[in-house]
């Protein structure tokens, strides 16, 4: 198909969600009942369009002129290629399932129209990121996606914590975005454009040092969106949003945008930049995994796990193997969305029907033994958890393997020290298996720990069907024929040819995983598995704001910022303004001295001047009775004297 | 009439002011109706102007020139002050902005109830002076309008303001007066150094009164000037911008001649003059550290005055930088790019941090203005096409956005007379429409793509990056401004609007949602910021050719 044929899908894919956003938003509460169906229908249409126009072999670009100033001309341009093809499918599919799920999950919310409107706004901006052909266009949608994330995290705006979390997410993202923008503007300076196609031809002309700096600046955007250390604190807090939103935005799609960005710009990342990226990814992966083993909130475990998995993808991009990163992105999108939706189903089930009962439906310490009441949820959750833990026959096994193999190949090229990275990944895979076993056990096995007024019940079909679909997509078969060899059709689809297949990698990784599960299982047999009983008693101390500060970046950003702010405010008031005031006071004193001289020396002249001014002042007073007439006269007299002076000279 | 369309634009409000002052009736409604009629006429005239403005023409358009004062003063030559008005791509967007902002201001003045006659007379006087400032093509005329702006502003703050109005008004006045004094000094020096080649040619006698101007004439006169062939008595001194910007018109050996060797202290006179002018306009913009009048003036000023102050008065500073400071001292401007852009960067970051520290809503917005105007200075100091266009764009964008922000503050203040951010919580519960429009204004101001703020910041930053003379760290540090903007706007939004509704005082029933008048005032501004954000070409097509020609003239 010619490029011009892609104008239509570009318009439809972006235009439909945006129009529906406006429609649902302005539609008001009357259309609450319909809103979900309208949203789902449009997303389904988007899915069909992306399938119809899928042409992965070819690159198609659509361009529009936007601004031209001086030597800079900026185009709004969109591209269709292999990456877009897969991302469009993932985004539309997950969004469709999540919207269906939300209709049941949020059925009695009074702002349903707004909810689905914001989901459409999110889709509009996410699809914009996916289609963007230039980094500037991507940045524009990048910011808009931040807006929709803000609106959706803070959807329950009457909860102070939710709003705080929304704001924190936006501001921390902004820090990364400022770096991203700096990188883009540096590209404009050195290359004159941020168009990806042009850049891929021109990067050779930039010196490596500057290219490293640009690459790291662009990576800043990824650090914000994909919750990398040290900008990661917003992601766990973002769990304040509705659970389907966490599934769609904060697990499957938006947080993966950073990885998508790295995949797009992989050609301009220098080895130095890649090393930094790999290190940041490692730190994020480990901290996320360790935090997840200690968390009690069912959603926050998953959030930390998302952080950790994003770290893994970033490391893969650091290895220079963006294809494996993208592979893990895709498998992760399905099983993590599945986990969140299943977690939502659990939360839905244990929420007491009487609203006034003090019960936290997200606390895993008050769950346990739910597999009997929620059989479907249990199966879906376990399948997705197995995929996340990296058990054989599940998708996560394949993609993790691919990343680890890439890591060993990379280390072989660079030297002994670099073997740390794949080894740490295997260790963290072990942690993943551990905390997922812990979570499955805490929620579904063991004795019932919930209160008597909680009556768990299986969720309706509208909820479990999407979960089932996502679980099915977490099986290996969709990505590779051979459950033990990652280089199946997905990787060849994105053009990744593994030079050597390391057979021992899946074996080692599998062994570590099983060992961790065994360790976790031993824990189950103990008296106080995972300290669930001990922790239950001191839960009271962890309420209010404390839990929010648990793992946030206050120490990195908010505290220093507020400190600087405080002192600058004092500085402004006590120094700059005080200096001005003291100058003013000194002038007044000086004025008094002068006036003393005046009174005593040139009395006669002054008197006559004053008399004139007063006379004029009285004339002006009829207009106004302020104190400023004298200034008025001074100005007028000044102008008059100026002319006089010019004339006389 | 059509030939004097620019005069009309100044004359309508001034005549309106006179009409208000002498109107026989004492019913306050009449004054505001006269003011409204004057502003509606202004809008109509500017629509006509917009339609007749030629975007492709990089030079001055719709010029009106007539001799105003001509006096022979012996050996000092001949004094010539012209009444010269014109617009070009640099001033025209600001003229349009002025009309929009002043129109919004008059509508929001609707519930001013005290001393209405004086209020509306001063308001119209201010309107005429502000527009005159952007139209004037003669430094003397410009200065006259510039000074005339101060007086109504002083009264408007000092008489209709808040509790500390007299302090704030005096502070405003002294600061700006100090600035204009510096400008005045340089203006006189410029005047003594520059001749009007056409008038001089007439005096010398090589150009008859009715003759057409030959293209070689000006170079010829300039050559004569260099050769000293013209007697001092025959030199016609001028204030015209067009002549001041051409180094060929400077009398050899005069104070501000490009080759001038005069030193004051250790500083060349031209450099000193450059800094004088810069500080004069920096007070207006305002640039840190001469900004402290702004928060006080805003806090005390009544809503419409704040709107006009932030919306249009600050822009005269930026306009002065482009037209006068850089226009007449291009060499010095290029020489001082780094200090100027550092000042811009400091304003951005410093203003941002201070905004974060405020608990008074108006002060927060005032400091955010300091930060946003820092982008203007950064863009102008870069002296690149992107930077200058971006700076003009940022001025227009900020004009619209700050007008919105102050109108929104006015909504709250009208109801409770309390602007403390911490005294409110969960306003979304009682004022949903107000919350949505404030949200739009906040997100637009923090530079969200799709709104005008983004384009202004993008291009000023891009201009600073594109400039070969500026080190990368200056614009890179300035991006901290967009992080801070997100922080202070969203933090304010969170504190005031979300959570459960709560108001510190008893009379929470007065917190009602936007009235029709308020909504009708705000929605067009929302429309403008979205329109400019999506189609920035509307402005860039207007400014681009002029800025390009201006930059070429600079080199």
Map the helices and strands.
The complex is a heterodimer of chains A (649) and B (555).
Chain A: H1 7-27, H2 32-52, E1 60-69, E2 72-80, H3 82-105, H4 112-131, H5 135-153, H6 160-190, H7 196-202, H8 208-225, H9 234-237, H10 243-252, H11 257-264, H12 271-292, H13 298-318, H14 322-350, H15 375-389, H16 395-414, H17 420-444, H18 461-472, H19 489-493, H20 504-525, H21 532-537, H22 546-549, H23 558-601, H24 603-621, H25 629-648
Antiparallel strand pairs in A: 1-2
Chain B: H1 5-22, H2 28-52, E1 61-72, E2 78-87, H3 92-108, H4 116-135, H5 139-160, H6 165-193, H7 197-204, H8 217-227, E3 236-238, H9 241-244, E4 263-264, E5 267-268, H10 269-284, H11 293-300, H12 303-328, H13 330-335, H14 337-356, H15 361-382, H16 385-416, E6 424-425, H17 432-445, H18 452-466, H19 473-478, H20 480-497, E7 502-503, H21 516-534, H22 537-554
Parallel strand pairs in B: 2-3
Antiparallel strand pairs in B: 1-2, 4-5, 6-7
Helix pairs in contact in B: 1-2, 1-4, 2-3, 2-4, 3-4, 3-12, 3-16, 4-5, 5-6, 6-10, 6-11, 7-8, 10-12, 11-15, 12-15, 12-16, 14-15, 14-20, 15-16, 15-18, 15-20, 16-17, 16-18, 16-21, 16-22, 17-20, 17-21, 18-21
Transmembrane segments (chain A): 6-27, 34-54, 86-106, 115-132, 138-158, 170-192, 245-267, 273-290, 302-322, 373-396, 416-436, 461-481, 501-521, 631-648
Keywords (chain A): Membrane, Transmembrane, Transmembrane helix
Domain NADH-Ubiquinone oxidoreductase (complex I) chain 5 N-terminal (chain A): 66-116
């Amino acid at each position: 198909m010619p490029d011009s044929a892609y104008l239509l899908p570009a318009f439809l894919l972006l235009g439909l969600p945006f129009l529906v956003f406006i429609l649902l938003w302005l539609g008001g509460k009357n259309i609450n009942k319909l809103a979900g169906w309208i949203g789902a229908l449009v997303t389904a249409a988007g899915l069909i369009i992306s399938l119809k126009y899928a042409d992965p072999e070819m690159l198609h670009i659509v361009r529009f002129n936007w601004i031209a100033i001086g030597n800079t001309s900026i185009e709004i341009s969109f591209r269709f290629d292999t990456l877009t093809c897969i991302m469009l499918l993932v985004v539309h599919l997950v969004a469709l399932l999540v919207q269906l799920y939300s209709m049941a999950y949020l059925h009695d919310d009074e702002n349903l129209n707004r909810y689905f409107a914001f989901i459409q706004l999110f889709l509009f901006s996410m699809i914009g990121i996916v289609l963007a052909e230039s980094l500037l266009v991507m940045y524009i949608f990048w910011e808009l996606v931040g807006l929709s994330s803000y609106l959706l995290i803070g959807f329950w705006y009457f909860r102070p914590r939710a709003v705080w979390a929304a704001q924190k997410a936006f501001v921390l993202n902004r820090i990364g975005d400022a770096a991203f923008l700096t990188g883009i503007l540096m590209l404009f300076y050195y290359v004159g454009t941020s168009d990806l196609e042009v850049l891929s031809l021109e990067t050779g002309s930039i010196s490596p040092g500057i290219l490293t700096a640009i690459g790291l600046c662009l990576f800043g955007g990824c650090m914000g969106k994909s919750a990398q250390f040290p900008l990661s604190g917003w992601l766990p807090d973002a769990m304040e949003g509705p659970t389907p939103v966490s599934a769609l935005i904060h697990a499957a799609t938006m947080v993966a945008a950073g990885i998508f960005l790295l995949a797009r710009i992989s050609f301009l990342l220098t080895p130095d930049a890649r090393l930094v990226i790999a290190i940041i990814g490692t730190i994020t992966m480990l901290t996320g995994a360790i935090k997840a083993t200690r968390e009690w909130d069912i959603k926050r475990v998953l959030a930390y796990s998302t952080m950790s998995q994003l770290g893994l993808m970033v490391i893969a991009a650091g290895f220079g193997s963006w294809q494996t990163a993208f592979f893990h992105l895709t498998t992760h999108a399905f099983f993590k969305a599945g986990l969140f939706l299943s977690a939502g189903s659990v939360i839905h089930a244990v929420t007491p029907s009487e609203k006034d009962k003090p019960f936290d439906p997200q606390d895993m310490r008050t769950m346990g033994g739910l597999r009997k009441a929620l059989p479907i949820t249990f199966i879906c959750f376990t399948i997705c958890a197995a995929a996340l833990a990296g058990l054989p026959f599940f998708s996560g096994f394949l993609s993790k393997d691919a990343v680890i193999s890439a890591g060993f190949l990379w280390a072989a090229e660079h030297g002994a020290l670099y073997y740390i990275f794949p080894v740490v990944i295997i260790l963290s895979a072990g942690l993943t298996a551990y905390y997922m076993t812990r979570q499955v056990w805490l929620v579904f096995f063991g004795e019932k720990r919930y209160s008597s007024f909680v009556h768990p019940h299986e969720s309706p079909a509208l909820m479990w069907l999407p979960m089932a679909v996502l679980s099915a997509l977490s099986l290996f078969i969709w990505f590779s024929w051979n459950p033990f060899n990652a280089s199946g059709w997905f990787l060849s689809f994105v053009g990744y040819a593994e030079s050597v297949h390391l057979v021992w990698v899946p074996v080692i990784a599998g062994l570590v995983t099983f060992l961790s599960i065994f360790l976790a299982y031993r824990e189950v047999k103990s008296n106080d598995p995972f300290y669930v009983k001990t922790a239950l008693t001191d839960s009271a101390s962890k309420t209010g704001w404390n839990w929010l500060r648990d793992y946030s970046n206050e120490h990195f950003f908010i505290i220093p910022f507020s400190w600087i702010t405080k002192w600058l405010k004092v500085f402004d008031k006590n120094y700059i303004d005080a200096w001005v005031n003291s100058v003013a006071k000194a002038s007044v004193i000086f004025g008094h001295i002068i006036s003393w001289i005046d009174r005593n020396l040139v009395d006669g002249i002054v008197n006559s001047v004053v008399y004139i001014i007063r006379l004029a002042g009285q004339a002006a007073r009829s207009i106004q009775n302020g104190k400023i007439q004298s200034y008025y006269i001074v100005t007028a007299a000044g102008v008059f004297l100026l002319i006089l002076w010019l004339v006389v000279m | 009439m059509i030939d004097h369309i620019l005069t009309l634009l100044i004359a309508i409000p001034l005549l309106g002011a006179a009409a208000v002052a002498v109107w026989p009736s004492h019913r306050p409604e009449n004054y505001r109706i006269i003011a409204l009629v004057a502003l509606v006429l202004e809008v109509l005239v500017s629509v006509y102007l917009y339609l007749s403005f030629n975007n492709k023409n990089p030079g001055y358009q719709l010029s009106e020139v007539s001799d105003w004062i001509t006096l022979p003063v012996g050996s000092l030559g001949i004094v010539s002050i012209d009444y010269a008005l014109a617009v070009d791509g640099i001033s025209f967007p600001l003229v349009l902005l002025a009309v929009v902002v002043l129109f919004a201001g008059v509508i929001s003045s609707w519930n001013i109830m005290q001393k209405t006659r004086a209020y509306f007379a001063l308001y119209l006087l201010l309107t005429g002076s502000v527009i005159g400032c952007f139209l004037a093509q003669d430094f003397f005329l410009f200065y006259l309008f510039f000074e005339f702006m101060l007086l109504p502003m002083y009264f408007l703050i000092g008489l209709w303001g808040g509790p500390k109005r007299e302090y704030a008004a005096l502070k405003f006045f002294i600061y700006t007066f100090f600035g204009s004094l510096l400008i005045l000094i340089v203006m006189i020096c410029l005047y003594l150094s520059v001749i009007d080649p056409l008038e001089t040619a007439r005096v010398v006698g090589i150009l008859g009164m009715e003759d057409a101007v030959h293209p070689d004439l000006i170079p010829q006169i300039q050559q004569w000037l260099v050769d000293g062939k013209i007697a001092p008595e025959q030199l016609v001194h001028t204030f015209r911008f067009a002549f001041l910007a051409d180094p060929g018109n400077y009398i050899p050996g005069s104070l501000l001649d490009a080759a001038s060797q005069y030193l004051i202290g250790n500083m060349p006179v031209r450099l000193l003059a450059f800094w004088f002018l810069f500080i004069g306009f920096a007070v207006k913009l305002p640039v840190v550290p001469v900004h402290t009048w702004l928060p006080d003036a805003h806090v005390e000023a009544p809503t419409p005055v704040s709107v006009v102050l932030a919306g249009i008065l600050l822009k005269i500073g930026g306009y002065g930088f482009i037209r006068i400071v850089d226009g007449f001292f291009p060499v010095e401007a290029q020489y001082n790019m780094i200090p100027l852009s550092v000042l811009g960067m400091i304003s951005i970051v410093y203003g941002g941090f201070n905004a974060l520290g405020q608990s008074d809503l108006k002060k927060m917005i005032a400091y955010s203005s300091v930060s946003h105007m820092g982008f203007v200075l950064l863009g102008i100091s870069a002296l690149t096409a992107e930077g200058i266009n971006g700076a003009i764009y940022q001025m227009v964008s900020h004009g619209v956005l700050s007008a919105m922000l102050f109108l929104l503050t006015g909504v709250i203040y009208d109801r409770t007379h309390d602007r403390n951010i911490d005294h409110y919580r969960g306003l979304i519960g009682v004022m949903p429409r107000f919350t949505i429009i404030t949200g739009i204004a906040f997100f637009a101001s923090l530079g969200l793509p799709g709104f005008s703020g983004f384009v202004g910041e993008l291009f000023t930053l891009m201009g600073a990056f594109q400039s070969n003379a500026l080190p990368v760290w200056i614009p890179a540090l300035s991006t901290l401004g967009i992080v801070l903007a997100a922080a202070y706007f969203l933090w304010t939004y969170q504190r005031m609007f979300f959570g459960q509704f709560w108001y510190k005082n008893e009379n929470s029933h007065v917190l009602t949602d936007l009235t029709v008048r308020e909504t009708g005032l705000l929605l067009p501004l929302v429309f403008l910021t979205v329109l400019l954000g999506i189609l920035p070409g509307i402005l860039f097509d207007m400014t681009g050719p002029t800025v390009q020609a201006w930059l070429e003239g600079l080199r």
